[in-house]
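Illustration: Protein SirB1 N-terminal domain-containing protein.
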Amino acid sequence: MSAKIAQSLFALASYLESQQNLLMNFSSARQYFYQEIQQPDEYINLAKAALYIAQEEYPNLDPEEYLNALDTMAQEVQERLPTPRYPLRLIQSLNQYLYDDLGFTGNSSNYYDPRNSFLNDVIDRRMGIPITLALVYLEIAHRIEFPMVGIGLPGHFLIRPDIPDMEIFVDAFNRGEVMFTEDCQERLTQMFQQPVNLKPEFLATVSNRQFLARMLTNLKYIYLKQQDLGKTLSAVERILLLFPTAMLEIRDRGLLYYQLGHYPQAVADLQNYLSKVPDAEDAVVIRRLLTELGKE
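Result:
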């Protein structure tokens, strides 16, 4: 065996051992989440991954119960689908079932309730925020073979049929309202209370990993607002499982470690951040913090 092959095998063995050690330190819910997102993006089961996120909050949660609930909803929708199955008629059937029959609604009165971000709560309470209501919608649409995709509009979340040249969007937060490109422009202007240029990337499809990261980012800021640093850290850690080189998340994890008194971990993350982004706007502040910790 050549030295080069032996070196490669050793590196692979070391990597596998490190991954196994990483898994051993996770809760069971975190392990399931990690295992789910190791698949190629298109094979990640969004509903399962979202339920594993919720399982950290609810350790006794049974994901199969809620996957079965989605299956049941899809079966009930299937029975009332029109013929022929034109996209707008399918959307009309989905909207009638979800909003009129089941009573799903956007939680405008308590938008930052963390329960709005947990799929089990959204299904139980029939209430959520744009991205979690979109997830319910997407999952049912997928089960009735009506492919839809997520659209990460700034400050909001939409979905659209995954059909070439069909530029219509569905707002799951607002009772499945059907929107066109000009409506998206108007929605942005309303949200930001000033004219906003609708860039093409605003209407780009999000990947499954981006979808999950956006859910976790919502939780991150909810918990930060509640000053629950432990749960904020938990959200950041899972974002980094999705995107290990996200430098702003590495910085935030370092700052959370610092606030929680985990100084060696804080130093490692903050030094890593500065090494990768030495000209960051907050570099002076981070260096000052490292000096305080005796490491700069």
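Reading the tokens back as a structure: The first helix runs from residue 3 to 24.
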